[in-house]
Amino acid sequence: MAKILIVDDEATTRNTLSWYLQKEDFQVFTSVNGEDALLMETSIQPDLIILDIMMPGMSGWEVARNIPRKVPIIFLTALGQETDKLTGFNLGADDYVTKPFSPRELVARIKVTLRHYGKFNQEDFLIFPPFQINANSKSVKVNQVQLCLTTKEFDLLLFLVRHSNTIFSRESLITNVWGYEYDGDARVIDTTIKRLRHKLGEHRDCLKTIRGAGYMLGVIDNA
User: Which domains does the chain have, with CATH numbers?
Assistant: First the structure.
């Protein structure tokens, strides 16, 4: 599990990015200023640092200059001028992302950076009989037969496969698959599960309804 240190004085940025990273099974640490960030860098030795520039006290530029070891850095900042970006890269940054930003895109950039350093080994292929899932291409095969799934059907199935034999309420699935910003009807889960079961055909029973609790993906009963 890769360790990510987020250094930003904006609570919204820290909380939003933490949520997306924890959803991808990263271990997340946060700091609100540069001074504390340097202490945390020494104690936890993160695999990557997300670093704001404009913070009270020590700036992100100073933090980058004072980190005692080589650690991947992605600047996340409202400073978008070319000179700012050049300064960031000259300080050794691996990437530079300007606010406002897409959390999903930033998570993807984090994964690319970690792969470059050999610190991200999450499997792109998951096997959970009878499923063969390619998380990279968002494709699913059942006994080598390709399924035609919508994006949300795939995301829901992938989440349940990664957390097999665990019961999730509708609200929990909404939060983990649709995102905490979703404010629609929670019954979208029932509809998506119904469509998935139809597409799984004879293997539909692996998607189990737990009365009064929610849904889970489990081993198909042989009885």
Answer: 3-116 (3.40.50.2300), 125-217 (1.10.10.10)
Q: Specify the long-range contacts of residues 104-112, CB closer than 8 Å, at least 24 apart.
A: 104/20, 106/17, 106/20, 106/50, 106/74, 106/76, 107/20, 107/21, 107/24, 109/74, 110/4, 110/21, 110/26, 110/48, 110/50, 110/74, 111/24
Q: Find out whether 52 and 76 touch, Cβ atoms under 8 Å.
A: yes
Give the dihedral of Cα atoms 39, 41, 44, 48; nearest 10 deg: 160
Q: Which residue has the higher pLDDT, 34 or 2?
A: 34
Q: Are 173 and 159 in contact (CB under 8 A)?
A: yes
Does the structure show a pLDDT above 80 at 124? no
184-220, pLDDT tens digit by residue? 787 899 999 999 999 998 888 999 999 889 999 986 4
Distance between CA atoms of residues 33 and 141, nearest Å: 47
